[in-house]
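Lab notes, practical 5.
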Amino acid sequence: MPITWDDFARIDMRVGVVVDAQAFPEARRPALKLRIDFGSLGVKRSSAQITERYAPADLIGRRVVAVVNFPPKQIGPFVSEVLVLGAYDDHGHVLLLRPDFDAPPGSRIG
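Output from the prediction step:
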C-alpha cells in the first residue's frame, strides 16, 4: 500500500549512540535493553531483539538509526521509548542500520 510524502515526513528517524546495553531476560523473545543518546533529544530506552548478532559490550559507542516519535511501549517491566531499525538477513536475524559516517547524535534521517 503506497504512502504519501506527508506520511513519510511524520516519521521522525534519528541517529543515536548506544551508551548502555544489557541482557533483557524478562522479555518473551531474546532481547537487549539499550540506552541510546540522541543528543538534544536526550537518552532514550529501547528493547531490541538483536541477540543473535550482537553482544551487549559490542554495541557501546555504536551509532544506530531509530524512530523516536512512536508512543512508549511497555515490554514486561521495561518501557521502550524508541524503535531501533534494522534489516533482516537470510536467517531472520536483525542487522542494525547505521550511518556510513559519524553523524552527530540526534541527526535527522530524511
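Observations recorded by the TA: The chain has a mean pLDDT of 96. The beta strands are 13-23, 32-37, 43-48, 63-67, 73-75, 78-80, 83-84, 86-88, 94-96.
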